[in-house]
């Protein structure tokens, strides 16, 4: 009887080792599954990051283009403004000549200045 009890004890010990082994395997499987899910999420985030980086680069190029266009338009505006100011000053100082025909048929050159 003693022998049988020892076998049962050993069998119970083997059973508890088997249960422990199964629990360890189960934990490993859960960790592997979680790891796969984290890898999948990581790849998704890397992909999103690349897309955002590409969009950012495109926006930077567009900003540079718009900045160049604005600078060009400002330069054109300043050039036109300077031309208008120069033209106004020239017109103010320029003397004007008119031909005048009187009733008797004589032609007169009239010269005057705005100053």
Explain what the structure shows.
The chain is of the alpha+beta class. The protein is built from 1 helix and 2 strands. It has one helix at 2-93; strands spanning 95-101, 107-113. A two-stranded antiparallel sheet has the order 1-2. The chain is rod-shaped, with a radius of gyration of 48 Å. The relative contact order is 0.04. The model is unreliable at 1-9 (pLDDT under 50).
Condensed summary:
The chain is of the alpha+beta class.
Low-confidence stretches: 1-9
**Spatial separation of the terminal alpha carbons:** 139 Å
| Sequence of strands across the biggest β-sheet | 1-2
Structural class of the secondary elements?
A: alpha+beta
Mean pLDDT: 80
Radius of gyration: 48 Å
Share in β-strands: 5-15%
Number of helices: 1
Helix fraction bin: over 70%
Number of strands: 2
- Biggest sheet record: 2 strands, antiparallel
SSE string:
HEE
Shape, please? rod-shaped
Write out key terms for the chains shown.
single chain, 115 residues, alpha+beta, two-stranded antiparallel ribbon, 1 helix, 80% helix, disordered N terminus
List strands and helices in order, with pairings.
Layout: H1 2-93, E1 95-101, E2 107-113
Antiparallel strand pairs: 1-2
């Amino acid at each position: 009887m003693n022998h049988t009890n020892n076998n049962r004890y050993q069998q119970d010990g083997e059973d508890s080792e088997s249960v422990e082994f199964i629990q360890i395997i189960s934990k490993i499987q859960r960790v592997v599954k979680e790891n796969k899910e984290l890898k999948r999420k990581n790849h998704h985030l890397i992909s999103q990051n690349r897309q955002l980086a590409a969009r950012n680069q495109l926006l930077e190029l567009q900003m540079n283009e718009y900045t160049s266009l604005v600078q060009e338009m400002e330069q054109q505006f300043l050039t036109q403004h300077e031309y208008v100011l120069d033209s106004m000053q020239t017109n103010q100082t320029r003397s004007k000549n008119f031909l005048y025909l009187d009733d008797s048929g004589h032609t007169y050159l009239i010269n005057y200045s705005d100053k």
